[in-house]
Amino acid sequence: MDGTGTNTRWCSAPGCMLNIKIMRRHFFRFPKDRKRWLEWIKACNRMDLVPIGPEFANRYYRICHLHFRVEMFRNIEGRIYLSKEAVPSIFLKPLQQTGDGNSSTTLFQPISFVTIFLKPESRNRNSTDLSQSEVSEMHPVKPDERDTAIISPVQALFPRSSLKQTYEDRNVSSAQTLLLDVKKENDNRNTSAEIQFIKEIDTNTEAVSTLARIFPKEECSNSDIIDLTSIDSPVPTTSKTVSVCTPPSKTVSICTTSSKTVSVHTTQQNGDRTPKRRHWNISTQTPEAWIRGKRPMEKSEICADNLITKRRKTFDAENEDNRLNMDQFKTACTDLLPRNSAMLVSACINACEKPKTKKNFKDKQLALELFFMASGAYRFYRPLCLLPTTRQLWRHIRNWDIPPGLNDNVLNALRLKIKSLLSTERHCSLSVKEMRLRPHLFYNLTRDKIIGFHDTGTEKRRTLARKVLVIMACSLVGDWEQPIAYYFHSNTCHTDILKDLIFQAIIRLKSINVTVHVLITNTSPTFLRLSRLLGISVERPSFLVNNERVFFVFDVTRLMRTTRNVFRTHDFRFRDKRASWMDIELFFRRDSQMRLPLAPKLSLSHLEPKGCQKIETKYAVQIFSGSIAAGLSAHIASGELPLEMIGTMEFIHNFDQLFDIFNSSTSTKSNTKNFEQTFTGSMHEMSFLQQTLDFLKSIKIVDRNGACVKSIKCFDHWQITINAVIQLWNVLQQHQLPSLCTRRLNLESIERVFRSIRRQSGNRVRPTPILFTYAFKNLVSKHFLEHSSGGDSAVNGRKILKRIETASTPSMSSLANEVPPATQVLNISATNYRNIDLRLPERSAFKRVCEFLLNECLLVHINCNVCIAYATKESSLSSRDTSSSFHLYISSLEDMFMRNFEKLSIEKNLGAQMLQLAQQIDYKPPCPDFPIVFLIKLFLRMRVYFTLSRHNKICKGIESRSSLNVIQL
């Protein structure tokens, strides 16, 4: 059996839990053996447990350790065990008391109880220790009891902090509690054990005076509750002291329950060292002792308070001395150590001297600046200078307010990040793309505004947002990429607005030393109109922004898919040759029948793409691959295919090389690909691009009837992109860029952002505006902390140390603006209004809302009979009754909401403005303490919720709905 100290269990002994107060109990299960179980319940006087049986009693009933004799316990490796023959024998003794009314009541007279805590021993029964030998000398143990450990340290009885304080106040050098004597009284029927404790105290201390102060001579009345949690060890009302002559080196005083005195002296063993003379005090825990120790305890508490005050003064003086010593230490380090080492020591000392509180806004902004300065060095100095972790910095950025439009916090943080990069990594491209959204309105309680309308940062309309425009900056040479802005708009974004947004982004990036050279878009109608507005053509593939050229590039992956789609429905004629989709189908039928196909990846999904396969780039790229061109050449050479298919083979081969040169990423040359390495502007690359331009100019698109089609401009887009790359390389050479990774000249990075947003929104193809906002903030913080700064690590480390050294007066205004704590105007605790079913007739719904509002007010304003009577009267009246003042007031609030909500829905501080208008309506409450403000806030929260909820449900079924319509209750 093992005991546990949990406070949730209950001792089954009669009166134990109610009459005995103790700090910690050990509980033991009833035995499963029926014979022993009967002995236990008879000893406990719990014959009511006979019907349930030993199994049920073992599971649900416990006996605490106070009811067992001490020789029944063993403490093995920290767990308390009972011997197999243990039977509870110490209980509260019933006492018959007769009153004046000749009625007798049964009370419980507490007898001597102590707390049994044993010193842990090893599982090896042959092991002995010094304390056991001392006990055997002072108290002979019977032969059948020598295997019982009878050691109980004071540390198990009292908490360590209280024990330490008590001993320090009493100047006690050491203390050890030993079990000395177990005395049996009365006959075999009524047996009780008195368990005494021994305190070992130095005779040099003022023990006698301390005991005299704690235990006065006046008599105290008994109490029905035994308190075993007292710090001081009380003594019983009557004492007996026994003296026994043994060695002159030790004296033991034993206090028991009679008036005699006994002295115990032990003989010194041969060869033992002469110990110091010690004085032993023995006491038992009884109700009289607890009551007697009350007053001294109160006095000791007052003394302890005075001592604490003195210690605080002492600690303050010590802290001042420590500061002086630290200043001297810093000065010595500055004089003796190298500068970098001295700066590091000073930074570590300053960090340790700061109070360990939650990092404020400025501390996190400084840490973010240090991280951007040198991320590798930051990870080294973080534990030394107690800086925030990367996860904490991520949360800090995520808490920024990032509304639609260009955000100052994002751009300022990007400026610090760019500042730590090389000059060649500050040249970037600007990727712009749209993503479809599901119309959905959401009231942001923290920002006090509705999210989901058309919003470009500078202009907000009451039309629903169905698309979002995202702008992302990507380095042309480095590895950083950063989303910088997003804009909500309806179905079509006007070209003039789109042009202004892009120009603003380029100008703001230039202001933070980021030069934009390329604008990358896809071939959607919106961006084709933008290219025409900017005057983009084959001869002029760039436009000017503040007298700097920005090249317009179409996404190469989108161009490959467009070319594949046109190739499926049209034939191409160039240089007296023909390229047809039917040639690829014929090749697939011949090649699939071969035992070893020449184009093993070619499948029906490439020839007839369906669903998502139409927008996946790999199906288009694998059509224009070198393996298919080589397979066509082999079949034509063998005579299995006609010679006219050589035009299809040449067309596929040229587009395979064109895609390779626009998808280069590695610096090493491949053995199978000619243009897979990064673009360096070599003669081979330039000559191929010029030949490709001539080849694209010669292509004519012909339909199945043989008519020439001039409306398809996909090959013009190819020519614009090629000319833009050629001219871009000439500009980059002026900035001494070694090479150009052309894979960065596509929308792959922004496509990854869109995939992550959809995944964070529950794998929705069209996420809602609020889900997009949350995901975009996550991605902004993620991209900020991804890039590892380059450069010399030693130089970066010195920069961080200098910045930490000057952090006492930081200038953080340039990094980010501290967002003041938002005051949630309509913040209330009641949210059960969402359970109201308004699918009722108009009058019934209005009455249901009034009843709900009045009931919620009564829950806030409780114990008011006037308001309760008022609510009873209002509930008996019909809805919109002229005699019902509450119904008329709610009707006035409803009219105010209908008049103003649609007009104010796109404004900031929506809740504050609606609350101000609602407070202007007159209403006479039933009592002065009636919660009118709570009523107005609850009504506005409920109306906003029902209005937006109804609107969102309607938008699911009606795609053509473009604005918010407010419906009355």
UniProtKB/TrEMBL annotation:
Signal peptide: none
SMART domains: DM3, THAP
A GO MF label: zinc ion binding
Keyword NAD tagged: no
SUPFAM superfamilies, sorted: Glucocorticoid receptor-like (DNA-binding domain) (SSF57716)
Domain THAP-type: 1-91
Keyword Zinc applies: yes
Keyword annotations: DNA-binding, Metal-binding, Zinc, Zinc-finger
Pfam families in UniProt: THAP, TNP-like_GBD, TNP-like_RNaseH_N
Organism of this sequence: Trachymyrmex septentrionalis
Domain of life: Eukaryota
Name listed for the protein in its UniProt record: THAP domain-containing protein 9
